[in-house]
Amino acid sequence: MQVHVVPPVPTQRPPRMQAALGYARRRHAGQLRADGSPFLEHVLEVADLLDYFGADDDLLSAALLHDVLEKTSATEDELRALFGSRVTDLVVAVSDDDTIEDWRRRKAASRGRLRRNEDDEALLLFAADKVSRIRELRRGLEPPAPPTVRDRLAHYNASLHMLEHRLPGSPIVAMLRAEIAAYAPPSAAAIASPRS
Q1: Cα(82)–Cα(158) distance, rounded to whole angstroms?
Q2: Nearest-angstrom CA–CA distance, 18 and 20
Q3: CATH of the domain at 136
Q4: Cβ–Cβ under 8 Å, residues 47 and 129
Q5: According to the model, what pLDDT value does residue 33 have?
Q6: Residue 194 domain-assigned?
Q7: Within a domain: residue 1?
Q8: What is the pLDDT of residues 128-175, one digit of tens each?
Q9: What confidence tens digit (pLDDT) does each residue in 13-29 have?
Q10: pTM > 0.85
């Protein structure tokens, strides 16, 4: 049995970021990814990606919180009271509209909303999330349940197209392109292998 340990809250970070990580840790407690690792590892990876590219504390706090509206009972009002308007606006910008039941329509609506969003930091957060998600696919961490891998790849490619238009030359968007290009679905590998 593999044991996954979530790193402690870094002490060198500002209090708001430590509070955001503590809040995310509480809200996502018990949530797991397909391999049994804590879901929190995903939000930590998104924050690490943005940190690597020099994101400020508000964007890093939003990265730590970016899934709480979609995946927990947290509310926008609660986030606004605890973390302020800037962080909350970034989280809201990348959160899906849960009133749209169909996954493809919901993702298309999110991309459309982000395409019209004037805030480049929201786009950077969205891009970092997609990098982390395609990496999960590459490691086989996505569950086989719907949406299908094909649907996910279509969403990631459409996201990439939108991001390249909105953030030309962005290193994190270039990273997303490279991650998508490096992904080879298992079925494609089987098709490409020589027959005996």
Answers
A1: 33
A2: 5
A3: 1.10.3210.10
A4: no
A5: 84
A6: no
A7: no
A8: 999 999 998 888 776 667 788 889 999 999 999 999 999 999 999 999
A9: 778 899 999 999 999 99
A10: yes
What does the H/E/C string look like for the chain?
A: CCCCCCCCCCCCCCHHHHHHHHHHHHHCCCCECCCCCECHHHHHHHHHHHHHCCCCHHHHHHHHHCCHHHHCCCCHHHHHHHHHHHHHHHHHHHCCCCCCCCHHHHHHHHHHHHHHCCCHHHHHHHHHHHHHHHHHHHCCCCCCCCCCHHHHHHHHHHHHHHHHHHCCCCHHHHHHHHHHHHCCCHHHHHHHCCCC
Residues 84 and 96 sit within 8 Å (Cβ to Cβ) = no
Beta bridge partners of 32: 38
Distance CA 173, CA 133 (A): 14
Beta-ladder partners of 38: 32
Residue 128 is part of which domain span?
Answer: 15-187
Pairwise CA distance, residues 57 & 121, whole Å: 12
Torsion angle, alpha carbons of 10, 23, 36, 94, to 10: -100
Residue 5 above 50 pLDDT?
no
Q: Do residues 121 and 89 touch, judged by C-beta distance below 8 A?
A: no
Specify the number of domains making up the chain.
1
